[in-house]
Amino acid sequence: MPTSYPWTSAKKCRRKNNVASLEVSTHPLKMDNMRITPSLNKALMESLQNWSMPFEELDPLLRFEKMNLAEESLPLDICEDEKENYLKVWNCKKTSILNKYTTGEKLTIISSFLPGGEKTLIRQVSNLNEKVKHRLEQLDDFDEASVRKTMGLSQQEFVTKVHMLDEEIKKAWDSEQRVNAFKIAIQCSKLLSDISVMQFYPSKFILISDVLDNFGSLVFDRLKNKSFGNKNIKFQYIDPNTVLEIAKETCQNWLFKMASIRELLPRLYMEIALLQCNVFISREEMKPTINRLTKMIRGMGNPLVAIYIRVYLCNTSSKLFSKESEPYYKDNLSEFINEYQQIFHPTMLKKYGAQLLTADQYLNLYVPAVDWLLFGTLNWNHDKLNLLEELLKKCNEIENSELLLCCIISAFDSSSVIQKSSAILDIIRKNADGMVMMHQALSSLGEHLCHAESYRQVSAEVLSQTWWKLASGMKSTANFLQVLEPWIQFACLQLSSQHINVILRGTIRYLIKSGHPPDNYSAQIQNVIKRILKHIPDVEELFLMDAFMPLVELVQTSAARTSMARTVLTVFFERNKSERIDDPIVIASLMRLCRIVHDSINAVSVEDESKWSGELIVRCIQVARHEDLDTQLNFYVECRAAFLKLDAVLVALVHAVNTLSTRGAASRGRWLQRACAAYCYITVPSLQCVLSRATLYLLSGQVALLNNCIGQAEANFKALVGVIPNIPQYVQEDGQKKPTHDRVAGLISNFLSTLLVLPDNVDSNSKAYILSGFIKTLERVEWRKTDALYYTTLLRVLDLLCEMTQEQYAYHIDSVISNDELYGAEEEFVKCLENYATNVCQELLVVLKALSDAKETKKQYSLSLELFWRIIKRGDLQQSSMSGLASNLWMLSQKLQDSNAKYAKSILAVLQADPAGRQLLEKLKVQ
Cα(174)–Cα(553) distance, rounded to whole angstroms? Predict the structure, then answer.
């Protein structure tokens, strides 16, 4: 091959489309659609779901909130077909109790059977009579000296010890030491008489009752095996008449052992635990036994201990009799109400006072038990409204009824509570001076009222005025905000915006006068604001209230202000689906919140935080609209000054200003387009990402060119040419390094296509000076010559140069005079372009040599055919240099081709189908 091949472009006639072309099977811009066929392998899908569960796990900090919501949404009705529904609901409730009633105090456990204690000597006996006698002796011989008290236990250590006792019961049972297992169960039940750490008592009850249930199951299973062997017979199908005598005797033996317990509390617990065993003797006596136990609990002097043993009795009854157990809930609730005043006995007041518990903390210990008794009672009595009236009447009759009232409000369904809401508020108002749980009662009532579909305006206002008088008199800010949260939702749903604004003003006054920093209650204030945003009918109207933004900005710490601003913006944009906000007050408020979010970003902010903040600010910029275009541009200028830290926001601003430029093209003078182009040119350099800078330079230049702002377009394209060498090979996106070659190739192709219609600056002596600058830039770009991006870019440049030599270009922009009109195919201009093309062609030949040296055969084959096709399509083959180069390239490709030569075959097929093409093939001696 000669060292140089001068390039000469062929002149084309636009009227006749006689240029050979290649047929393609797919459009280059068509997206590949993936069709996913659902798998029929359910086991595989389930395994994939199980594998992905850890990645979808709920935030640990939100678990407790989710548990509370689950507890509040417990069903009030039980289907008769679901026999285990009580058990399922109780299991959910147990979890919430264990999470809520915790302590940091030191606990005590008393037992003689924990590992390390004294072991009981086991005598080997063979005679049955001696065996029975020995067991009775063991039961009577309760060696008090062996009992050890372990003090100073943490909550977790206490839980561990209880689990150890449960395991000891199982071990003793498996090793035929059943009397020891019985003694361990008795000692566990005795732990429930200890109320030295009251705030942990509900959780301790849950732990111990599970141990007693397990013991009762062991005894029941042994009796069932003695009578029926290995048959799996459920409790409800056991007929006492079919039970073997040995099983009945064993059952009576266990009941006698239980009756021999001297102390009342362990005897009651053990009898309840073994209640199901009575079925082996007589099923008819079981329900009278439950009634007897209900009355026997009256003998418990401690009301806290008494109500939880009633819960255990009701739970055991529901496991055995399901729906038939519901009257026992009603009976135990009535017993509790009759003994209600014991809760406020001076002895109990001294005990919880000595433990530094407040009155409301003490009363809250009873709430889970009372709620559970009410749960069963409500399922028994289907006339809920009459039952509610009856219970409210009792609340009016007895003193200190706040505990019962709070539980009643939370237990009943919303429709019943709403009908009696005025009566409930009257009870609260009459007893407001001495109520320590008023905030819970008002909060529960407010939650019910939020479910009201409609309320008469007068009634809603009266209710709202009543609760506000009660809430504003509270001394505790936390209690006030707890009450405010549901009632402000009720106001949003039922009252006018003026009324809501009045409540917000009063809230601000209360928080200021309370004397406590609002930052201490930022989470509760945030919940209140979230409720307002989610339930007010017109969310934009909220920003027109003079008290809303002051309440949002009442907190002063940076973290609290940022969290508040993010919450408001997130909920606002979730509800506001409009694409346009033109109220200046709303826009100013949103901008204020966006500034707070932006200013919180610093060097230590994580990527997700910055991304979230950027999305919120971008959304605000997108929806903010001003009728006057000058005002809109000034708004974007303010945004640029305020949000310099976030690339995503600056990118959105450039796109918004380019859109504004196109909007103003028809309505305003050329100055607006120039101002917008200048804005973009100044803003783009602030971006940290070089690839984003290059993309926006190109876009801004194209918009400026579309608006006939030639100078501004040139400035953007010059900046783009200067940026291209700095584009990295990889960019960090979503925590991963992603290559940029494909995106850069598309960017350069777009840029070169735009240069075709860009006119030269008449004041410049250089022809096609931006393109020439780009060609020179390619010389210092750190791309390898064997890289596909490099030689593909050279091919695109060669295409552009050949097209620019034509008398008429393939496309134009209205009102823009391109170089075909500006030069009119002037010889000097065409010669300059062909010189550039010669240099590019020579560089491509150098690349072919480099590919040969690197043994990149496939790339060399592809490039030789690409260059051959361009010579045939765009070159003047009348020139010997062009025809010689084409012939050499074809021979090179034939020498390199392999079995897969589709491209070469396609080129031959196209040329042979055209007469001029066949002549060309004969001239080039191509076969």
Answer: 65
Please provide the average confidence, as pLDDT, over all residues in the chain. 84
114-162 pLDDT per residue, tens:
654 434 333 444 455 565 555 545 544 444 446 677 888 899 999 999 9
Positive or negative, the Cα torsion across 415, 418, 423, 425?
positive
Distances (CA, A) of 717 to 385, 505, 740: 78, 55, 20
Question: Which of 754, 749, 671 is CA-nearest to residue 717?
Answer: 754
Of 131-140, 406-415, 857-866, the least confident: 131-140
Alpha helical stretches, state H, 756-856? 769-780, 788-804, 819-823, 827-853
How many CB atoms within 10 Å of residue 611? 13
Smallest CA-to-CA distance from 455 within 502, 411, 487 is with 487
Contact residues for 793 (Cβ-Cβ < 8 A; gap 6+)? 745, 748, 778
Which pLDDT does position 141 carry in this prediction? 45
> H helices within 73-142, ranges in order?
85-100, 128-140
Beta-bridge partner residues of 581:
624
Question: What one-character DSSP code corresponds to residue 9?
Answer: B
Residue 27 binned pLDDT confidence (cut-offs 50, 70, 90) = low
Q: CB-based contacts of 203: which residues, under 8 Å, 6+ apart?
A: 97, 98, 101, 102
Tens of pLDDT, residues 692-721: 999 999 999 999 999 889 999 999 999 999
The whole-angstrom separation of Cα 435 and Cα 431 is 6
Residue 636 and residue 672 in contact, taking contact as beta carbons nearer than 8 Å: no
Q: Where are the domains of the chain?
A: 101-115+147-283, 876-926
Would the pLDDT of 751 be above 70?
yes
Closest-CA residue to 206 (of 285, 292, 93)? 93
pTM over the 0.85 mark: no
Give CA–CA dist 487/895, Å, rounded: 85
Mapped onto helix, strand or coil, the DSSP state of residue 118 is coil
Higher pLDDT, 592 or 606: 592
Cα gap 329→752, rounded to integer Å? 83
| Token pair listed for 56 | 């979808």
Residue with tokens 């147990």: 94
**Separation of alpha carbons 108 and 128, rounded Å:** 40
Average pLDDT over residues 856-875: 88
Q: What would the two tokens of residue 910 be?
A: 């196209």
CB–CB of 38/913 below 8 Å? no
Which helix (H) or strand (E) segment holds residue 70: the answer is helix 63-72
Strands 107-111 and 148-153: antiparallel
Structure-token pair, residue 638: 């303010």
Q: Are the C-beta atoms of 421 and 487 separated by less than 8 Å? A: no
